[in-house]
User: Fold this.
Amino acid sequence: MYPSDRRYTKDHEWIIATGNLGRVGITDFAQKQLGDVVFVELPEVGRAVSQGQTAGTIESVKAVSELYSPATGKVVAVNPDVTSKPELVNKDPHGAWLYDIELSNPAEVENLLNNDQYTDLVK
Amino acid sequence: MNQSSTEQLKKTPLNARHRAHGARMVPFGGWDMPVEYSGIVHEHMAVRTKAGLFDVSHMGEIELAGKDALAGVQKISSNDAAKLSIGQAQYSALTTPAGTFVDDLIVYRLASEHYLLVVNAGNIDKAYKWIAEHARPVGDVAVVNSSSRYALLAVQGPEALGIVQTLTSVDLAGIKYYWFAPGEVAGVRSIISRTGYTGEDGFELFVPPASAERVWNAILDAGAGAGIVPVGLGARDTLRLEAGMHLSGQDIDETTTVLEADLGWIVGWKKTDFIGKSALDQQKSAGPGRKLVGFDMTAPGIARHGYTAHTASGEGIVTSGTQTPFLKKAIGLAYLPIEATAAGTEFDVDIRGRRVPARVVPRQFYKRSRS
Assistant:
């Protein structure tokens, strides 16, 4: 269910780290809790983000939730598909990435949960 | 939500049914209620295009009966209940002396000296106390909180009439909007009311709690071919907002007058008296300083309850806001200074520190086409 190619936060984000590049999204558990996602506000390219700090917001019909960055670094790309079609986050949460980070410290990602640990967290 | 608070919540007779449907349950007005089953957007679209079934048994029922029942209703309700025929219903406000809302309600005339008042779930005790305190001194009138004697189901959507008609011998097409009739539905004695809170055609069915599940199941079976789905409070909220209807406790409360809420049409101006009449008369001649308007966002962003509005004439406050599933845009309701309430007026909403442009539009965002 939760792929082993990435790490997870207790705030229900995932990150796939490849060298010093990190690709970020939210988990299937998170999208189920949110319900129908209708608006995604992502950080601007070039913005510095820190692990555990707010990087944007995601809104369902009912509520607003913060997006917390799973790692520290600089935003180098955002996914225009999810801002124009927010429902992609519900349809394919582990495929619909939100933004890419140039990681300041790739080892930081190792502190996050692996897929087994995350599965335990949300079961 | 923790376990202990869940145990204290009241449950409708359909609670186990909702859980069996896989609904996500939330506390609402002291009740354990379904917020969504298959998803808010899916449920919302089903009601706009086919049909939806709602459990609204959390709503409260208060009955007034006796020789002076009409006088009792007239005292506490802003609208003119003298206009009601037996079998007719009326939207109204339970007003404070300041002309603000204790609650909004629907008044049903069951018999010549017998009225049924439907009030909101979170306000049952407050509304009952208010009504009993103010209506009883009027004369020979009994005031009874009969909320536990009714379950209330709503069937809404373009297919609603066809679905319910298969379960009753009452000619449903003969019941006009805001009228009702007694009759059996799925073999259960009911009050069949052509009312709703979605902007669609449909019916609300008052049934005995012990028979609620039987009627619920019969409607879902009868409507399966037409695509009926159970609908939770999430879509109930987006549907009513799209239809420009007020939510008590959110858009209207004890701090907002009936006129400010743009509900002058539910005031019986020619009535001799009701609680709040002089305040409303006075505000009508002076003109209210602010008014509830509809708005849509003209740049990306969703305004939510409590956000500040900035107009050229001062600040206002957003009371409802969402991204609507059918119209697919961000809409809302806001109290704005009266100078800023004309359709087309542009203003900003402070969305978490960012000012996003919006404009005033007619409050009825969605209007169904009547055939």
Q: What stands out?
A: The first strand of chain B starts at residue 24 and ends at 28.
